[in-house]
Design brief:
The chain has 94 residues and is an all-alpha fold. The chain has one domain (12-78): Orthogonal Bundle (Arc Repressor Mutant, subunit A). Helix content is 52%, strand content 0%.
Length: 94
């Protein structure tokens, strides 16, 4: 799978997939993902390089592409699924 053409070909596609495979492996082994600083250190990336590879960030970018969403992480930490936010349904009277 290639990156969209609009992003340009920077020659870093292997770095992207290497990082994504690392996240998947860590999640399957440990049922959680490491904090971004440790993930970068394990992959010999500086944070500035990481930001260039995944401009949308760690959770919304790298973890999402790796197939790990907030619900999986929440379940792994708490043992229960996320509860949806509940709104009162009343309109504000400003």
């Amino acid at each position: 799978m290639a990156w969209p053409r609009c992003w340009g070909s920077t020659g870093t596609e292997e770095k992207h997939w290497s990082f994504i495979r690392y996240l998947r492996k860590k999640f399957l082994e440990e049922k959680t993902v490491p904090v971004v600083v440790l993930a970068c250190a394990d992959n010999d990336l500086r944070l500035s390089e990481f930001k260039l590879l995944f401009p949308t960030g760690y959770h919304r970018g790298a973890c999402k592409i790796a197939g790990i969403n907030y619900d999986f992480m929440y379940k792994a930490i708490t043992g229960s699924p996320m509860r949806p936010l509940r709104f009162s349904g009343r309109a504000r009277s400003d």
